[in-house]
Design a protein that fits this description.
Blueprint lengths: L1 H16 L19 E6 L11 H5 L23 H9 L8 E5 L7 E6 L35 H11 L8 E6 L2 H40 L5 H17 L5 H13 L10 H57 L7 E4 L8 H4 L3 H22 L5 E4 L1 H10 L8 E5 L29 E3 L7 H18 L3
Helix pairs in contact: 1-12, 3-12, 4-8, 5-6, 5-7, 5-8, 6-7, 8-10
Length: 466
């Protein structure tokens, strides 16, 4: 199996050598189709600078990778994503962002008027979903950044409006979306599960406190059983009183304990203090356990709905490709399916149950995409999931040095947004990170973008389009 993988990698590189070699900026070559332009729709993985304005621009960011030409550090650190590299490969103009702007906190430099740029066909935007206009970092999520997150459905509509409603048929159209549908829904599920767990944990902890305290307070009495009954009755009465708190209940319990025969010493803070501390700790542990179970139960019960939603998103994207792209004259449409999100640094940090849910969500989306587009001769589906999974589990043949950590230093002191959006040569981790797979917790490095561009090129060659 290992030899097969190395042979496949060698074959891939050989094919790509015929399409511009292994140079980070592929050269000219003879191609079967002379594309007049490149049009891209999608999310942050294809965004060529939608948010390269305001504070983001001041921080030398703008794309979701390691920004800027850092080839002086290493030849692979070009600052370009896969759509830019592919444009150079097929000999068309470098893509530019169709729309730029931010709708966020003006005091932080994140409020910049939205501007549409004529002749720019890079519609992909960080945070964009397939049809829902509210994606990660949109202002309606409470984010200060105020990402525009124009959905793919609207991106396509905007392009058709700009070009008179029809494609010429000589464009290479790139589509890659769905990741934010997964991430947004996972975030919502996590928040809801946390809320359910917090509520259940607080309730369980409160219920466990008095039962944990009573035997401790009663232990020194001549008759602990009788004392426990009296303490319990006093605590229950205090709990039923208006404005009851844990403090008032504790005071009532201690008072009842202290008047029990042989138990007067418990009235001293030095004696009952450690008992209260232990009861509190025991109740907290019980609450944490109950909260964790409630949160997990909530996630397990609601996780299947996310799988269904991702299948719907995949079907929606397939329908957009068929009815809005192909039906309107697009003759060369490349659709990348979702990569292996569970093996990103973010995914690897999740518990096994969440990773399994992510895999199910991605599989549902990709299956719907394939089912909806498999018969379309003007559509090329690129199996990015397969290659990203192999990279994550078998990085050697891809010349990847690290597939688990981020190349960017995402600490607040180095990176105010904690994102590759403002990552550049000045805030990388120490050492050689040029062949790291990821810039941040979900976005690829320039080198991994190069690998993706090569993989798409190979698919185009196989399809007979390049």
């Amino acid at each position: 199996m290992r030899q097969t993988k190395f042979a496949l990698a060698a074959m891939t590189l050989a094919v790509l050598a015929g399409c511009g070699g292994t140079d980070p900026a592929p050269g000219n070559q003879t191609i079967k189709n002379k594309f007049a332009s490149q049009v891209s729709f999608g999310d942050s993985l294809s965004d060529v600078g939608s948010y390269n304005v305001g504070t983001v621009a001041a921080l030398k960011g703008g794309k979701f990778t390691i920004n800027g030409d850092n080839t002086s550090i290493n030849a692979t650190l070009t600052g370009r994503n896969w759509t830019e590299l592919l444009a150079a490969q097929i000999g068309v103009a470098a893509p530019c962002a169709a729309v730029t702007g931010l709708d966020g906190d003006a005091t932080k430099g994140f409020s910049v008027p939205q501007v549409a740029h004529a002749g720019c066909y890079g519609y992909a935007q960080g945070g964009s979903r397939v049809t829902n206009p509210v994606g990660p970092n949109n202002k309606l999520t409470g984010s200060a950044l105020g990402a525009l997150t124009i959905p793919v459905a609207t991106q396509i509509a905007n392009h058709l409006k700009a070009v008179g409603g029809k494609f010429k048929g000589d464009e290479l159209v790139l589509v890659m979306a769905g990741g934010n549908d997964a991430l947004f829904q996972l975030g919502a599920l996590s928040s809801a599960a946390t809320a359910a767990g917090t509520k259940a944990g607080a309730e369980a902890g409160a219920k466990a406190y008095v039962p944990a305290l009573i035997p401790l307070l009663a232990a020194g009495a001549t008759n602990p059983a009788t004392a426990a009954q009296a303490i319990g009755a006093a605590a229950a009465a205090a709990a039923a009183a208006p404005g009851a708190t844990q403090t008032t209940i504790t005071q009532a319990a201690v008072g009842a304990a202290a008047v029990q025969p042989g138990n007067s010493a418990v009235a001293s803070p030095a004696v009952y203090g450690p008992m209260v501390a232990k009861a509190t700790a025991d109740a907290t542990a019980a609450g944490n356990a109950a909260g964790a179970k409630a949160g997990a139960d909530y996630a397990a019960a609601n996780g299947p709905a996310l799988v269904t939603a991702m299948a719907t998103a995949g079907t929606e994207l397939a329908n957009l490709v068929k009815t809005q792209l192909v039906a309107n004259g697009a003759a060369f449409v490349t659709v990348n399916n979702l990569p292996d999100i569970a093996t990103t640094p973010s995914g690897r940090g999740q518990p096994a149950s969440t990773q399994a849910l992510i895999n199910a969500m991605v599989s549902a989306f990709n299956s719907a995409l394939t089912s909806g587009l498999g018969a379309e001769t003007k559509v090329l589906i690129v199996d990015v999931f397969a290659v990203s999974h192999d990279q994550a589990t078998n990085p050697g043949p891809y010349d990847l040095s690290n597939v688990t950590e981020t190349a960017c230093d995402l600490t607040p002191a180095k990176n105010p947004l904690g994102s590759s959006l403002v990552c550049n040569g000045s805030n990388l981790k120490s050492g050689d990170v040029s062949h790291y797979s990821f810039a941040d917790d979900v976005h690829p490095s320039p080198f991994n973008n190069l690998l993706l561009a090569r993989y798409v090129s190979k698919a185009l060659v196989t399809k007979g389009w390049l």
